[in-house]
Amino acid sequence: MRLLLLFLFISCAYGLQLKADRKAHWQTGNPNHGPFYGQPEQVHLSYGGDPSRVIVTWLTFDDTLSTTVEYGESDNLDLSANGNCSLFVDGGQRQTKRYIHRVMLENIKAGVKYYYHVGSEFGWSSIFTFVGLQPRPEGGYRFAVYGDMGNINARSLGKIQKLSQKRDFDMVLHVGDFAYDMYEKEGRFGDEFMRQIEPIAAYIPYMTVVGNHEEAYNFSHYINRFYMPDSDHSLFYSFDIGPVHVVGFSSEFYFYTKYGWDQIGNQWNWLLKDLQKAEKNRKNVPWIVTMAHKPMYCSDFYADDCKLYESIIRTGLPMTHAYGLENLFYKYGVDLELWAHEHSYERMFPVFNRTVYNGTKEPYVDPPAPVHVVTGSAGCQEQVVPFVKYPPPWSAFRSSLYGFSRMQVFNATHLYFEQVSASGDELIDFFWIVKNRHGRPNQKDKLKLAKYGTQIPMNYCHHESHDCSNSL
Ligand SMILES: [Fe+2]
């Protein structure tokens, strides 16, 4: 299995993969020529799909001919690993070239602190550290979760940087929309964003999904700059960590069909296979958490697809309802669905097919349907958004304050989730999901949902754009 994964890693095709025996453009015969800019920058880690594997990615603005991480359990850095390099040409007028370097570190020991730097003979980064992933003493792993963080007005950035370096989190899940936008100014916005997250991502894995702000040039800035495990595009992928199976996918395929329709079906088929596989492994990895950018449910004033009765993400393509995701995720008993895009925080009651499980005192104890959370208030220049006046039945808690979420999956039964302020110590919201059983909803779940659920009629309006009043 390991050999297979390694092969997949080496043979994948991000940008133009450069051959190991290539000649750089500056190798002209003139002994005084060298790379124009070989200094590594924008160093970031991602999870290699197993706690023993860490992927290190960085960028140079010129070809350095080699791609190396020197690392070890002290700053002697007595180990080294080589990787590959690909050329990413920006779609802007200047066609700026960026050389993206990727190295897979293997046999990383749980709980051991590693020191590392990256580069080549033409320049090395500063020394960073990471700790091999291992469950926390109280159980499981802790994640920072947020979307919609830009270069400008990145309100949560400082706090997340500080907490990451203190290892308050084990991993970041960034649920789409970066930089606003990465392609701007010939990609310099993307460079600046990757520099600003380096104090986070050089220390803990930074896991991502794509948002609408990454759309330019067919999402190529996202695809080239991030590297997610077991995927050659980072657009849809999954991994297990402790008791949770995390599935990342693109909501944007449904909206940017100018890049092709096949991507919707390809991804949907992949999701189906992935959930089938995860179902077989549910005894070992009981929780399934999905993440994608544009939500199915929301109630903020400027809401997009999620303000519609028939959100495309929820119910699929118009008329045919092909590739809808709500039925699929319900069928396979997805526990929690993480979203962003709306610049707010909103926790939903368990909900399926417009039936909201809000009629009990403990809606998150053995919920008979998936729980949704929108967490898109990390901070960007587009500011946070207000909510519609009357919360619709699916909305359990709403906040328009800047902030981000933290999640800890303690064990097979308990998942903790909270929303904290962008700075300071304010706890905005928290809740536990307690599950004594994971898997497909059974007859008992269906009866519970019917008995305690609120059925939302098709003519129910919660958004002023529908030109109707709240009458439920
Ligand atoms: Fe967005």
Automatic annotation (TrEMBL):
Keywords of the record: Glycoprotein, Hydrolase, Signal
Gene3D superfamilies documented for this protein: 3.60.21.10, Purple acid phosphatase-like, N-terminal
Recorded catalytic activity of this chain's protein: a phosphate monoester + H2O = an alcohol + phosphate
Pfam families, per the entry: Metallophos, Metallophos_C, Pur_ac_phosph_N
The Purple acid phosphatase C-terminal domain, residue ranges: 369-429
Domain of life, per lineage: Eukaryota
Signal peptide, first to last residue: 1-15
A GO MF label: metal ion binding
Family label: Belongs to the metallophosphoesterase superfamily. Purple acid phosphatase family.
Protein's name in the database: Purple acid phosphatase
Native source species: Steinernema carpocapsae
